[in-house]
Specification:
By secondary structure, the chain is α/β, with parallel strands linked by helices. The protein is built from nine helices and 16 strands. The strands form four sheets. Strands 3-16-4-5-6-7 form a six-stranded mixed sheet. It has a six-stranded mixed sheet with strand order 8-9-10-11-15-14. A two-stranded antiparallel ribbon has the order 1-2.
Length: about 325
């Protein structure tokens, strides 16, 4: 568990208001919560739902197939035309992982490491939900992330943000293993004579501790800016703030879908066109929502394969 010194360092870094709001919400993270949007149900916290789903899949003879599907990673390659992209970043490749839910990966990430190890990219970004559970300890999550980082090799390192499954106390442990976590913060990426900025927000979906204005305070207005957000729920405000590309996850693309990838549940407060794959908000801001690399509730997937995404900037 994190020590008091680490908490004090986080407070100095992100401010007492942000930290206290995060910690308070973490203690309230239960299956049901009343919000300004009404009653929210967090399916991941309803243990009997997972048991019921497992029984149903077994009864239909689909449990084995759905389990195997959870590690049948699909590498999605996306060409991203960005207006005003600095010349040195043409061809820049971003490896995008999301919703790893590390403890639930059945082979402890062996296959995932193999696939990632075969790819070539310049920067790795992880858009939240490192952890499978939404409560309890997280030592296993940190240990599994340490194993995964052995397969991630790129000149500009690994940048990450927290999701609704992640506690802020995880940050020191994740950063100990080579990640740079962005908590409403931005970092410049330099290539040749040019610079591009990666903007990372704290969780937008459950905790509501995202602060885009704060994250942008040191970023030049004219700079190329790529946003990392856990979910696709702040698309409008991101567009108004001048983001050039929006990367997110959270929805899992539905995870358990009907044939054709038609989602039944996506758990995101946004239009269905934004819950998986590429999109372009009002033809003003392109974005991409990952189907997720892991799985929640149970390590199962149907008609919605887990993905590893390569974004090629052009």
């Amino acid at each position: 568990m994190v020590d008091n010194e680490a908490i004090l360092q986080l407070q100095a870094r992100i401010g007492s208001e942000h930290l206290s709001k995060r910690l308070q919400r973490q203690t309230e993270h239960s299956a049901l919560r009343f919000t300004p949007r009404g009653l929210e149900i967090h399916w991941e916290n309803i243990e009997k739902l997972g048991t019921t789903l497992k029984v149903l899949l077994k009864a239909c003879g689909l449990f084995g197939r759905a389990t195997r599907n959870s590690m049948d990673y699909k590498v999605e390659t996306v060409k991203v035309p960005l207006r005003g992209l600095p010349p040195s970043f043409r061809g820049f490749r971003i490896l995008h992982l999301s919703d790893l839910h590390l403890e639930s990966i059945l082979d402890r990430g062996r296959r995932l490491r193999e696939v990632i190890g075969s790819l070539s990219y310049d920067l790795c970004v992880i858009t939240g939900d490192f952890r499978f559970h939404t409560y309890g300890d997280y030592e296993e999550t940190i240990a599994r992330m340490a194993e995964l980082t052995t397969a991630i090799h790129c000149p500009h390192g690994i940048l990450g943000i927290l999701g609704n499954h992640d506690f802020i106390e995880m940050v020191p442990g994740l950063e100990k293993h080579g990640l740079q976590m962005l908590l409403n913060e931005s970092v410049p990426i330099h290539r040749g004579k040019d610079t591009m900025w990666i903007v990372g927000l704290d969780d937008t979906n459950y905790y509501g501790t995202d602060d885009l204005a704060k994250a942008l305070r040191h970023v030049p207005a004219e700079a190329t800016k790529i946003l990392l957000a856990h979910s696709p729920e702040i698309i409008e405000s991101a567009c108004e703030a001048g983001m050039d590309y929006y990367l997110c996850g959270h929805s899992h693309g539905g995870q358990m879908c009907l044939p054709g990838g038609i989602s039944i549940i996506n758990n995101s407060h946004c239009g269905r066109q934004y819950i998986a794959g590429p999109w372009n908000y009002q033809n003003r801001m392109p974005g991409y929502t990952s189907r997720g690399t892991g799985a929640s509730l149970l390590p199962v997937r149907l008609f919605c394969p887990p993905e590893i995404t390569l974004h090629h900037l052009v």
